[in-house]
Amino acid sequence: MQPWRGRVRLVLVGTEGEINLGFIARLAANFAVDEVYLVKPRVDPWSDEVRRFAAHGAYMVDRFQVVESLDEALRGVELAACTSARVGQRGDVLRHPVTPRRLAEEIAPRYRSIAVVFGRESVGLTRDEIARCHLLVTIPANPEYPVLNLSHAVAIILYELWLARSGEKAAKPVEEANAESLERIYSLLARAAERLVDRERLPQVLAALRHLLWRCPPTAGEASVLYQLAKKLAKALEEREAGRQ
Ligand code: SAH
Fold first, then answer.
1. Phi first, then psi: what are they for 112, rounded to 5°?
2. DSSP 3-state assignment of 96?
3. Are the C-beta atoms of 213 and 182 separated by less than 8 Å?
4. This prediction's pTM
5. CA 105, 65, 85, 97 torsion: positive or negative?
6. Can you spell out the DSSP letters for 122-147?
7. What pLDDT band is residue 221 in, cutting at 50, 70 and 90?
8. Averaging pLDDT over each range in 86-100, 127-141, 179-193, which range is the top one?
9. 139 lines ligand 1 (CB under 6 A)
10. pLDDT band at residue 173, thresholds of 50, 70 and 90?
């Protein structure tokens, strides 16, 4: 199989440190990231300090795109993977992560473009921001102290993506579902869930569905079966509702 040729967009949310930002620009150059988006940075992204720490990666600083929201930063990418040191319990479906290696070797190569999203040095990403993404990536580390410095976390994840983009990978035996078919299944199941699930539980159910589909993801054949079933389910629920009126 050919190495993965997808685009990688680095998304940094609310970055607070100039030194970190400089180091990250350097990493973006080291690992040939295509784009760097900054969502509401808390420092001047074009400061001398940032450029100094970017060293020969300073040209990446000139390419920084500053945006006002995570939605804007994710526009146009097929897969959004967010990152956190915090892993959830069984009931916390937002925090069931994959490793950077699994992201790079198995998940990212199915998409033409991916965004990797990193949080603030102080408080990381909010739950809403995590829910907005398709999946969560955690770098396994000492459970007593798993939180890495932001730029170090970026380095590890970009390194894994770099290996996957440059190396030869074993051929995959079956075709997997593509981004469009996952979206189609998700939106049908979401329509059904909206009719079946209590208002307060709905966000959790939608997040679970989303993360489950994108983490798996199903084979193309499984996706087609799931799509037919979801279509029938959504239709049956709509007919039932119409009959009641
Ligand atoms: N106190 C914050 C720590 C944020 S560290 C918190 O509790 O979330 C800053 C960012 O670095 C995180 O938002 C995440 O993007 C990244 N990061 C740090 N450690 C990580 C780890 N072990 N796995 C994945 N990302 C990590």
1. -80, -20
2. coil
3. yes
4. 0.80
5. negative
6. TTB--HHHHHHSSEEE-----TTS-P
7. confident
8. 127-141
9. yes
10. low
Ligand 1 site, residue 150, Cβ cutoff 6 A: yes
Q: For residue 151, give the nearest of 57, 76, 48 by alpha carbon.
A: 57
- Measured from the CB, is residue 82 less than 6 Å from ligand 1? no
Neighbours of 208 (CB within 10 A): 14
Give the neighbor-by-neighbor strand order of the sheet with 7-13. Answer: 65-67, 35-39, 7-13, 113-118, 79-83, 135-137
Give alpha helix (H) positions in 178-219.
179-196, 202-215
DSSP state of 38: E
Instruction: Please work out whether the CB of residue 55 comes within 6 Å of at least one atom of ligand 1.
Output: no
Position 172 confidence tier, pLDDT thresholds 50, 70, 90:
low
Ligand 1 near 141 CB (within 6 A): yes
For ligand 1, atom 20, name the residue with the nearest CA. 85
100, 137 Cβ separation under 8 angstroms: yes
| C-alpha span between 114 and 101 (Å, rounded) | 15
Query: In the prediction, which pLDDT does 58 show?
Result: 97
Mutate to test the pocket of ligand 1, among 13, 27, 147 (most ligand atoms within 8 A of CB): 147
